[in-house]
Design a protein that fits this description.
Elements: H1 2-16, H2 23-34, H3 45-53, H4 58-76, H5 85-98
């Protein structure tokens, strides 16, 4: 019981309110989750981006790659925060034009 509660709490923290995760990456995860592409806690950021990108047109796939690499370099490297809002807008616009809503696309 307690172990499950801890897993649920830890799984939610990196997505929703963890200040160590850059805002643009959190917004990206939330957006993709609502479109049927949830990132599981056991899946790396790069593996998740590769799986989702395989389903996207090139421009959106490249935007997701830039957002993911920005997240990784900021979170785990010594890179400064980069403005990736334009990339998020590309991703959101493309996915919205695809008409996806709560579909199980990547597992």
């Amino acid at each position: 019981g307690l172990a499950i509660l801890a897993i649920v709490f830890l799984g939610r923290s990196w997505r929703e309110g963890d200040d160590t995760v850059p805002v643009t990456y959190r917004r990206t995860l939330r957006f993709l989750d609502k479109r049927g592409w949830p990132r599981r806690p056991t899946v790396s950021a790069r593996d998740f981006a590769r799986a989702v990108s395989a389903e996207l047109p090139d421009d959106a796939a490249r935007a997701l790659e830039r957002i993911t690499e920005g997240y990784l370099s900021e979170r785990f490297g010594d890179a400064e925060r980069r403005d990736l809002v334009a990339d998020l807008a590309i991703l959101e616009g493309t996915v919205d034009r695809m008409g996806l809503r709560n579909q199980a696309n990547v597992r």
